[in-house]
Amino acid sequence: MVKKNWGLFGLIILLAAAADQAAKLAVSFKINLHESVPVIPGFFNIVHVKNRGMAFGIFNNPDPGPAVYFLAGASIFAVLLITFWFINLKENEKIVIPGLALIMGGAIGNLIDRLRLNVVIDFLDIQIGSYHWPAFNIADSCITVGTAWVLVCFIFYIKFE
């Protein structure tokens, strides 16, 4: 039986979800909806937008209809799948724990918004010249970094038995 580091796994999940929710709460109280506050003019802004779709504004429609339930269900499924994966990790796969925890923490952060508000609050806004990246949040960043971590681990470090 492989010994799991439940403490590290849980701590990363908690920190990711809490940081995401704290930042969204601050943005909601300090910045009006659709307002933009330049941090690095011409490159980085803090905005307050509501995303009814997926990460980076995909499927962001004014009336999401049943998509809200589908996206909440997909987040719950992701949390269950990652929990199952973590429980069944092999000894040589333990290096993926931080990545899995970041993905789960991000999924939980956005799930809290969907269940509480029926939307996800996005607030990080990056532009380079005329290219404007869709607004995103800490949860989206955690999911992206966690996925990259897991992929790098499987490409470079994990040998399949």
Word description of this protein:
The chain is an alpha+beta fold. The protein is built from 4 helices and 4 strands, in the order αββααββα. It has a 4-stranded antiparallel sheet. A hairpin with a 2-residue loop joins β3 and β4. α1 runs parallel beside α3 and α2 runs antiparallel to α3. The radius of gyration is 17 Å and the shape is globular.
Put the structure in a nutshell.
A four-stranded antiparallel beta sheet has the order 1-2-3-4.
List keywords for this structure.
globular; 4 strands; single chain; alpha+beta; four-stranded antiparallel sheet; 161 residues
Q: What is the chains' assembly state?
A: single chain
Largest sheet: 4 strands, antiparallel
Order of helices and strands: HEEHHEEH
Mean pLDDT: 89
Q: Strand arrangement, largest sheet?
A: 1-2-3-4
How far apart, in Å, are the first and last alpha carbons?
A: 16 Å
Cα-based radius of gyration, to the nearest Å: 17 Å
DSSP, total strands: 4
Low-confidence stretches: none
Structural class by secondary-structure content: alpha+beta
Percent of residues in β-strands: 5-15%
Total number of helices: 4
Write the SSE topology.
Blueprint: H1 6-30, E1 36-40, E2 44-51, H2 67-87, H3 97-117, E3 120-128, E4 131-132, H4 138-157
Antiparallel strand pairs: 1-2, 2-3, 3-4
